[in-house]
Amino acid sequence: MGSKTATEAQKYVWEGAIPLQIHLHESEVTTLPPPSPALILAPRIGYLPLLVPQIKPFFSSTLPPGSDTVWFEYQGLPLKWYIPTGVLYDLLCAEPERPWNLTVHFRGYPGNILTPCEGEDSVKWSFINSLKEAAYIVNGNCKNVMNMSQSDQSELWRSVLNGNLEAYIRVSSKLKLGLGGDDFSIKLNTSSLKYRQSAADAEASATIKAGRIPIRLYVRRVNEDFDDVEDAPLVDNWDKVSYINHPVEIHDNGKCFTLGDAVKALLPELFPDKSLPNDSMSLPQVEDGEGSALEEASDTGRARSPEDTGESVRECQDSCSLSETADVKLIRIQGIEPKLEIPFAWVVNNLMNPEHFLHISVYVRVQEPITV
Amino acid sequence: MATLSNQGKIDISCWDGTISQHEFHTAASAFAERWNKFNAALPQCSWVARPISPYLSSTSKDEGYLSVENVIMFPTPAAESCYGGDDKEGEEELSCSRSQEDDFIDGATMLQNHDDASHHYDFHVVYNASYRVPVLYFRAYCSDGRTLVLDDVEKSIPAISAKLLMLSKWTFITQEDHPYLNCPWYTLHPCGTSEWMKMLFSHEPAVDDGGVAVAKYLVSWFSVAGQVFGLKIPFEMLSSIGN
């Protein structure tokens, strides 16, 4: 197979970093004056626990006795270590905060909120398990990951640790995670090139082969009607974030599949035109359920008005008004807010994380949330 | 890719061992009904639906999980050997309790087993959209509510499972965030499930109208997954599902 080279966008993604200002939690300060915060550039595609070797020297002389159980929090919210650092930043800082002020703890691990983390090993295995999951989604099995040699596995992990994109591509290409293999890669590269020339040309050529794409969606719910994202209230617990780990299934219908189509497939209620029959645009199925669109609209109507037995017109009204109670304020991937019209093939090829998942942060404005 | 089920049946001739969310819901209803009918000795099984929210409602009718909670198990009787003369009696009693799976605890037994009180398990069966298979989530705690760590879990599961756990620490049982409850739960890793389900169903007797009932999927799945915890299912749970 021909060797694949990195696209310009991939290089930017791999070099992406977030300036962190890390403070030691006051309950763990045993000296006066308290230690100065640690200033660190954290790779977007990396994970917070991997920064501990750099952080520890700043604080070791002031820690109380005991063994380390390191965890991070932002404004009181314990941070899930298995989510890439860049995704946490995109999701939790509505208005990018530079530097991002985090608090580190070396004691008192909140085991009821965070899964255990035993340093680099835990992060590595979380990464490998995600890679297996992605391989299963794309290929229908994870044999290529399971059969990776020890040296390839180590090299792959080191490439992520060191931010070495060339080494990563060399090893990961053996996993054959592109849709349709070379054909997909070539088509994607063509798509990338054409996108620079003309959006119309990109639309014409950026068809994507049928298959499933690994996606992790983080939907943040904000209750107030805020005009500036700056006014978004803080996330104080993880129940305010819906985590949707669900692949997007693409059907080969010759149409250009856009980023908007992908998000619509996972969050159909947030796109009002779904309630209007439109045969010219067929939405990919999120599930194989046999419920018809009308039935779904009807169910939605019933969910809002249990006593309603109205006609289809009324059901359509209910469906539309439901859409008006929630709408998308923001969609972020790798720190940028791409237009929904961008061909999904380009987004996938250029903005994916090394474990082969596309992480998308979505801000949803919700008025009067429905409680049942 | 998963084959669309026709009339609630899986065409096993070209099947990859996976099911859709909708099929999972169908199989879960059948499982809960039969569990509650034929497994009276164990706690009830119920379906917990996903709470409705403004932007997730289109799929909520099928989304949710199966729940069986407060299943009581006892640590392996190795600990009993500390009590010397009571060794035989202790083993016998534990064996009897386990086979009956009731939660009666003799006061004398409780005193003896102060450090190894009964272990309580909550089991949830959740559909995994990536692997398109059910996944078993569980948590374990003592009768006083204290959460058990993995080393403690190891003491109340069959020896062969404990050995597997030791050999493949990172891939057999891991802690993950529960998809609905947003906090850490233990889970059996699902990456091999579709392959052994495919194998399991390939041994089903062929049926003229082509296919095995979707309702059978979860019962068959649990006959394997439940063994990790020494939980066997009554034969009636399988035989009562017609093709």
UniProtKB/TrEMBL annotation, chain A:
Limits of the Autophagy protein ATG5 alpha-helical bundle region domain: 120-176
GO terms of molecular function: Atg8-family ligase activity
Any one Pfam family match given in the protein's UniProt record, by short name: ATG5_HBR
Subcellular location: Cytoplasm
The Autophagy protein ATG5 UblB domain, residue ranges: 212-362
Cellular component, GO, one term: phagophore assembly site membrane
Primary localization class, coarse: cytoplasm
Keywords: Autophagy, Cytoplasm, Isopeptide bond, Protein transport, Transport, Ubl conjugation
GO biological process: autophagy of mitochondrion; cellular response to nitrogen starvation; piecemeal microautophagy of the nucleus; protein transport
Region span, Disordered: 276-318
Biased composition (Basic and acidic residues): 299-317
Protein family (similarity comment): Belongs to the ATG5 family.
Role, per record: Required for autophagy.
Self-association and partners: Conjugated to ATG12. Conjugated with ATG12.
Protein name according to UniProt: Autophagy protein 5
Organism this protein belongs to: Coffea canephora (Robusta coffee)
TrEMBL record, chain B:
GO cellular component: cytosol
UniProt keywords, alphabetically: Autophagy, Transferase, Ubl conjugation pathway
Organism, scientific name: Coffea canephora
Pfam families: Autophagy_act_C
Similarity comment: Belongs to the ATG10 family.
Molecular-function GO terms, alphabetical: Atg12 conjugating enzyme activity
Protein name: Ubiquitin-like-conjugating enzyme ATG10
Database matches in PANTHER family: UBIQUITIN-LIKE-CONJUGATING ENZYME ATG10
First and last residue of the signal peptide: none
GO biological process: autophagosome assembly; autophagy of mitochondrion; protein modification by small protein conjugation
